[in-house]
Respirasome Complex Assembly Factor 1
Amino acid sequence: MATKTKTTEKNGSNGASTIKQPALESVWVRAFKSESEWPDKEEFLDVIYWARQFLGIAVGILWGLIPLKGFVALLLFALVNAGIVYMYCTSFQKVDEEEYGGAWELTKEGFMTSFAGFLVTWIIFYTGLHSEGFRKDL
């Protein structure tokens, strides 16, 4: 069985690399710091993905408490979710949309899984708090 190994070029007699990279802040720090540098595009997309998951659950709880229902709630979720993420990317982080494939790519990153989390949370909270039939069974 053959194995591949990565080779790296090293300069100097002691084998130490001469290229020094500045230490990057953690992803969490950069996510909450305005105009952070994102040398790895995947890290920024991961931040968007997980922020959107949290946002979906938070909006689901809020919509269940208010109580919003029907098409209006679904439409408002889509607008709030897409709007907040787009504003985060363009106004807070000030990333170049084109580096990530345009505004549409940033807007749709993780949207469907966020929508699923929103639906589950919204249904549970709405049913538990506002459904008479559900409370009679308890």
